[in-house]
Design brief:
The complex is a heterodimer. By secondary structure, chain A is an alpha/beta fold. Helices cover 37% and strands 26% of the residues of chain A. The two termini of chain A are 30 Å apart. Chain B is an all-alpha fold. Chain B is built from ten helices and no strands. Chain B is globular, with a radius of gyration of 18 Å. The relative contact order of chain B is 0.14. The chains are: A alpha/beta, B mainly alpha.
Chain lengths: 303, 256
Amino acid sequence: MIIAKSLKKSFGDFTAVKGIDLHVQKGECFGLLGPNGAGKSTFIGMTYGTVKRSDGHLSVFGFDPDTHSREIKSRLGVVTQDNALDESLTVFENMLIYCAFIGVPSNERKKRIDDLLEYMNLSHKRDALIQTLSGGMKRRLVFVRALLGKPELLILDEPTTGLDPAVRHLLWGKVRELHQGGTTIVLTTHYMHEAEVLCDRLVIMNQGNVAAEGSPQNMIHKHAPGYVGIFNIEDKNKLESIVAGNSGLDYHADTSGLYLRTNSLAALTAFHSDHGLQPLQIRPSNLEDVFLKLTGQELSSDA
Amino acid sequence: MLNTLKLCFHITRRNWIVYKKDLIANISPTVADPALVLVSLGLGLGSFITNVEGMSYMQFLAPGLTVATALFTSFFESSYGFYVRMTYENVYKAMLTTPIGVKEVVIGEMIWVGLKGAVMAVGVAIVLALFGLMSNPWLIPALASVGFLVALPCGAMGLLSSALVNNINQFQTVYSFLIAPLYFLSGIFFPIPQMHLAVRIVAEFFPLIHGVRLAQSLFWERGIAEAFMYSGSILVVQSAILCILAYTQIKKKLIA
């Protein structure tokens, strides 16, 4: 559905996307994970023609976005990073304007809007002004807007940034339903958990490059298997002296804590009995550890 | 092509839907400003100036006010209005995810300011005709074309400045050095031949003076055909050039 080969984008001296290869298959939920500035949004913009690529090949539905953006845009829906709703209009009026933009036949507009408002639990706000809606409601409405055209491809550009857990879980549920219904989904996020929950396959982007690619479980298994123990910063000296004498341990320290990764749970729990060090928390490795391992920096740096 | 026009029309319609939500606030400056000028300058200053080109100062001032209205309504809409939509409300970011492209955005906005200019010019002309300042009120509908032809190039200047300013405060510079001089030096307040030659020559290259000539020909019912042939065609050419310039610059802003 989306094929990128050696895709590049520079803004002046700065290269935001440095020659990436990507392939999004029909029907999958594909994730682009990475910190702010990794090139995710630049890539998204290139797929529907609001960012012109500098070099390389890109096709979406078999079309070149630089020359056939209208053909592409008539088949996709985008949950934009900014809500960009008309604050002075009502929910229904906002959606009506968009129906006109995307060419929904006039006799179908009302029903389609009402059905989608129902789907996103917003029916009770149909005639409310946007400025009276909460952040979570606005976000759900942006989902409605993206779905008005019954898109084959749904692009979610940081869909849950800044939302409370309840709304986030509701949106995840909807995304899963849409995915099961056959919609191809491309999701950008800097929440690892979101990518783990939703994506069949993902790439981790860092500074304009693809750092790793695969299914979430495969990536964790391949790059950072096992468990992570998080230790109290006050135990730093003691922990480091133990690590220094044991090259098999994967250790990382930063301002948020001391992280020690081992292949087995037992190796971590043994730290208490062997050295008198009690981890504050022990958890299975996740994508954040993969990112850390691959790039040597926090996923959330610059965020 | 048909599709493009349809999309342009939807953008125009969107602006109208948003505009009419706050109609009183949106419309008041366009009604109040010319009324104020008419009272203060026409009645006040006009009592000292009894004869300008064979008519009262009120009569001399009237046609220019319709054109000034078209200038302000179009420039402010496409500078502050457009800039806020583009930068703060991200309206176009969302629009560009639909089949709408930059071309449709620019044409849709230009149709919107053109229509606004036309309606405002006619509205002001109706009020002025009620004061007996128009020799033949049946010519009022023709002022719609003047409003439209003035609003297009002035609106395009607004779009162009929207693309070129680095922040919203810089519109004040554009206003001080471009819009205010146009307003004061385009023959609205005193006859054009009394201006310095250099000013007269420079003024010819800007849209306002031509709009004033058109409006004066209609208000005073003299030389209408000549005015439309000369100034009318110049306005069309200026509109075309400025709209294309605005399009190329706005495109750079909206497409990275």
